[in-house]
Design goal:
Its main location: nucleus. The chain is built from four helices and no strands. By secondary structure, the protein is mainly α. The chain has two domains: 1-69, Histone, subunit A (Orthogonal Bundle), CATH 1.10.20; 71-107.
């Protein structure tokens, strides 16, 4: 299978993360490149595990939950669940905000 080229895709975010975790404001490009290779490898591994032997083209949240259900990935799974909860919470808040805006505009 042909490897896709993801070089530079996460550079900006990785530099910020590395700085946030105590690295230099402008980390060495070689260091960022190695971190990016590791990140892409991790994402590919999780996606391949989640896809299972049938190699699905679309992954569901349940597929990712199964892939991260190993004891070694418990923190990652907990973080994913937290982010999913926050995403739903934000959706609910936006819906309430839009609903209240509609009600206010009808009052005028």
């Amino acid at each position: 299978r042909k490897q896709a080229n993801f070089r530079g895709l996460f550079t900006k975010e990785l530099k910020s993360l590395m700085y946030g975790f105590g690295d230099d404001r402008n980390p060495a490009n070689d260091t960022v490149n190695v971190m990016e290779e590791m990140l892409v490898e991790f994402i590919v591994d999780v996606c391949q595990t989640a896809g299972g032997p049938q190699r699905k083209t679309r992954l569901s949240i349940e597929d990712l939950r199964r892939a991260l259900s190993r004891p070694a990935d418990a923190k990652k799974l907990a973080r994913m669940e937290e982010l999913l909860f926050m995403q739903e919470d934000i959706k609910r808040a936006r819906a309430q905000f839009e609903e209240s805006e509609l009600n206010q505009s009808k009052d005028f």
